[in-house]
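STRUCTURE REQUEST FORM
Protein name: MdsD protein
Source organism: human gut metagenome
Requested output: structure tokens
Priority: standard
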Amino acid sequence: SIKKVDLSGFSTKDISFEANFNYKPAEERQYLFDHIWRQVKDKFYDPKIHGVDWEGYRKTYEKFLPYINNNFDFQEMLSEMLGELNASHTGARYYASNSALTTANLGVFFDPQYQGDGLKIQEIIKRGPFDVKNTGVTAGSIIESIDGEEIKAGMDYFPLLDGKVGKNVRLGIRNAKGKKMEVTVK
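Status: completed
Returned output:
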């Protein structure tokens, strides 16, 4: 947390702070793989690395990186690679993080058959954001944008709702009759 300190009265006050970043897990795993491989090459206690072909193992294991989509599997692959050293107490660990962004839910079911741009609302869930606020949005309406970001056919829209729980979300809507409107829900 960030605090403001009043030096005259020695009091502190919490300052609200939020920062977004574009998390790229595949790039992060590539960096970590390179770093771990290099650390072993440069700092392993035996300069001959127990006689193993460390360059060869890099090529053998690195080819799996594009197919790994979670940190648990990444940790397993690193442990296998480090196990090739045949050295005691080498391996990799994965500890799940609780710091993931929470993704807001709009309280609707989307039409899975709809193929066009946007998200076609099939049903509005009772007591959900659209129902509670009485927005006038009905089944058959299409959400065309979230906070100004246009939604294209087949697009993963969940990142647009990351970190938005409890916050206002601005939606561009086209109702079943073709009328466009902007609605804000929380």
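Reviewer notes: The longest strand covers residues 119-124. The chain has two domains: 25-83, 108-185.
Form closed.
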